[in-house]
């Protein structure tokens, strides 16, 4: 009898986080194909699929749904395929007759098999406790889309019996929204960072973006013709390079024995995923990129994040983080919780026109300028206030003198 093949959680999972089995895509006894998605693993940052290591039968599940697992952990075992090839003349050896083509209406009404659903769809099904077999997919070939799941979740008759019983026990006017594994992980990570790991201190500056907006207006169309959107965040990423060079402690991590200064600048961009939480994909080697290179990398990462196409490697190894909370209307946020094990995080508030007093020819004048608040939250074990202020002085000077 052939030896069992272990299904292991890859060791390249997100640094510093625990992983949890979100759901198995196959049941014990089901046939599987090599490289076929077998189980979904969710951390506080990303959902990844672990593929089948070989053709065969899923023989055993050792890590059940909801179990916490570490990189390299045993998830299950596969009995390798040992069936002999079909003899000549058998039905399987001959060419299969081609079925009649489906009409579009039939294709749309056909229920989608689990292996034809995207990770985002499977996750939503699990979160809302919906049965995929009761949902008619409207995607190509009957695929269930995210919109199909959300529409079904809004229908009371689609709720699972257990969920219905829990809802019935809730007080009037209260709706129960179960925590997703990602939400629970984010909560744990934030509490550990703020209350158990680092003393947080925030400094607040104001930046005039007149020069940045002028530069953007001049170069935006050229950048777009070259295949990228030129966002204001790209300018902040570039300006952070100067600030991190001036204050390298902001690009470091604390250990009990020493401060570890990162020579490479890898900046994470906090990205909100509607209804799910926050991920922080990382732009690598930012110091080696010009503004166009930063804009390209930024656009690709944000697009992959919102389309649920991030890999674990996209979220690993950031040395500094930027949170542009102003895109959703926030003026200032303090403290923004540090993304451990980093030492600092930059917050960018909403850009708006403000009346300011400026001196011209020896006289004070009130003028209207595009300005925003920027904050730097630091780990006070690593940096002191004068270093945080130095960082911000360099950052603001770079933004206000852009040319």
Apparent shape: elongated
CATH second-level architecture of one domain: 2-Layer Sandwich
Distance between the termini: 71 Å
Strand content: 15-25%
Instruction: Kindly state the percentage of residues in helix.
Output: 25-40%
Could you describe the 3D structure shown?
The protein contains 9 helices and 19 strands. The protein is an alpha+beta fold and 403 residues long. Among the domains are: 103-159, Dihydrolipoamide Transferase (Irregular), CATH 4.10.320; 198-400, Chloramphenicol acetyltransferase-like domain (Chloramphenicol Acetyltransferase, 2-Layer Sandwich), CATH 3.30.559.10. The strands form 5 sheets. Strands 9, 12, 15, 16, 17, 18 and 19 form a 7-stranded mixed beta sheet that branches. Strands 1-8-6-3 form a 4-stranded antiparallel beta sheet, with no helix packed on it. Strands 5-4-2-7 form a 4-stranded antiparallel beta sheet. Helix 7 packs across helix 8 (291-306) and helix 7 crosses helix 9 (385-400). The longest helix has 17 residues, at 181-197. The protein is elongated and about 85 Å long.
């Amino acid at each position: 009898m052939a030896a069992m093949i272990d299904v292991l959680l890859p060791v390249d999972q997100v640094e510093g986080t625990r992983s949890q089995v979100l759901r198995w895509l196959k049941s014990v006894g089901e046939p599987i194909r090599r490289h076929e998605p077998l189980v979904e693993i969710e951390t506080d940052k990303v959902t990844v699929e672990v593929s089948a290591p070989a053709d065969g039968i899923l023989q055993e599940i050792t890590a059940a749904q909801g179990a916490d697992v570490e990189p390299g952990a045993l998830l299950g075992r596969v009995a390798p395929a040992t069936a002999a090839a079909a003899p000549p003349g058998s039905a399987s050896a001959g060419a299969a007759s081609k079925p009649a083509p489906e009409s579009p209406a039939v294709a749309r009404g056909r229920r989608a098999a689990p292996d034809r659903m995207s990770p985002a769809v499977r996750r939503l099904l699990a979160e809302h406790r919906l049965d995929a077999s009761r949902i008619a997919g409207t995607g190509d070939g009957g695929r269930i889309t995210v919109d199909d799941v959300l529409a079904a979740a809004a229908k009371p008759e689609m709720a699972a019996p257990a969920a219905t019983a829990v809802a019935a026990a809730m007080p009037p006017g209260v709706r129960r929204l179960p925590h997703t594994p990602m939400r629970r992980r984010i909560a744990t990570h934030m509490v550990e960072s703020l209350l158990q790991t680092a003393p947080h201190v925030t400094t607040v500056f104001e930046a005039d973006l007149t020069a940045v907006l002028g530069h953007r207006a001049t170069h935006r169309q050229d950048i777009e013709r070259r295949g990228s959107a030129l966002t204001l965040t790209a300018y902040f990423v570039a300006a952070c390079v100067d600030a991190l060079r001036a204050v390298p402690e902001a690009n470091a991590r604390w250990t009990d024995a020493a401060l570890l200064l990162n020579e490479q600048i890898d900046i994470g961009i906090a990205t909100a995923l509607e209804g799910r939480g926050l991920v922080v994909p990382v732009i690598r080697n930012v110091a080696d990129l010009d503004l166009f290179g930063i804009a390209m990398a930024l656009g690709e990462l944000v697009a992959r994040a919102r389309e649920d196409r991030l890999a674990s490697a996209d979220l690993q190894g950031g040395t500094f983080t930027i949170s542009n909370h102003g895109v959703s209307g926030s003026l200032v946020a303090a403290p923004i919780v540090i993304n451990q094990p980093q030492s600092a995080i930059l917050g960018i508030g909403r850009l708006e026109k403000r009346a300011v007093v400026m001196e011209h020819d020896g006289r004070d004048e009130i003028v209207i300028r595009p300005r925003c608040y920027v904050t730097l939250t630091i780990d006070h074990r690593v940096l002191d206030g004068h270093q945080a202020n130095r960082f911000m002085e360099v950052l603001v000077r770079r933004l206000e003198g852009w040319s």
